Amino acid sequence: MDGNKYSMMIIKEPWELDVMRTAGGKLAEVFHYVSSLILPGISTEEIDKIAEAKIISLGAIPILKGYRVGEKEFPCATCISINEEVVHGIPSKRILQDSDLVSLDISLAYNGYHSDMAVTIAMPHADFALKNFIQNTEECLRVGILSARQSNRIGDIGHNIELAAKNLNLGIVTSFVGHGIGRSLHEEPPVPNFGKAGTGFLLKPGMVLAIEPMLSIGSSEIEILQDGWTAVTKDKSMSAHFEHTVAITAGGPRILTK
User: 256 and 11 in contact (C-beta within 8 Å)?
Assistant: First the structure.
């Protein structure tokens, strides 16, 4: 979701990082709980309601619900995208099947600070090649996170994700990118999953980024469904999405949503 972007937040006080770490921990707890319920036979609407209740029970705010992009307002607490759906799938009465790929993307706010995370899960009877595709997409996220070091630049993150994806023969969805995150869900700078090494914002301790490769096993082109939100691969090839909220520190990248 692009929404309205704000200026970049730089963490200057230790307590700010502590709050963001707490927000990330709460979001990771939501994923741990909800992921165990993502099984054939449950509807994405049920998953969304369970996730929203869990977020609220942890004293956090399900920030996606009511999130506005222009005149559009997202109706749910989670984005749940299935198979060829890349991102921003709207939960519904759709029932998960035992060969589906399910991408779960959730954001929350806690004490004024935001956290963002996504995972893709294979149902029990998903093809082995699809399960391998999911692992490879997660590996591209790992590569991006390892590149998020002080004195590197934003372009280094995207460049290394792009190299990893191309080496794995995966399509890179270029229509959506990661972003800075902090007091707002979407802040500067944008964090593409492609790019030229040595270009873009200089990474400094105190920056926090949401790094999120979105890959496909086919075309990188997407189209938006009639609901105005759900992005699907144009060739209907399978898609996967992983995301962590990552702090740049003097000691290296720190995953806050672990």
Answer: no
Per-residue DSSP letters for the chain?
A: -----BPPPB--SHHHHHHHHHHHHHHHHHHHHHHTT--TT-BHHHHHHHHHHHHHHTT-B-TTTT-EETTEE--SSEEEEETTEEE-PPP-SPBPPTT-EEEEEEEEEETTEEEEEEEEEE-TTS-HHHHHHHHHHHHHHHHHHHT--TT-BHHHHHHHHHHHHHHTT-EE--S--EEE-SSSSSEEEEE-SS--TT-SSBP-TTBEEEE--EEESS---EEE-TTSS-EEETT---EEE-BEEEEEETTEEEES--
Instruction: Spell out the per-residue pLDDT of the chain, length 258, in tens.
Output: 665 555 788 888 889 999 999 999 999 999 999 999 999 999 999 999 999 999 999 999 999 999 999 889 999 999 999 999 999 999 999 999 999 999 999 999 999 999 999 999 999 999 999 999 999 999 999 999 999 999 999 999 999 999 999 999 999 999 999 999 999 999 999 999 999 999 999 999 999 999 999 999 998 999 999 999 999 999 999 999 999 999 999 999 999 998
Rounded-to-integer distance, Cα 147 and Cα 258, Å: 17
In a domain, 5, yes or no: no
* Residue 99 falls inside a structural domain: yes
Domain CATH for 148: 3.90.230.10
Nearest to 144 by CA among 27, 10, 243: 243
C-alpha span between 17 and 235 (Å, rounded): 42
Residue 229: domain span: 14-255
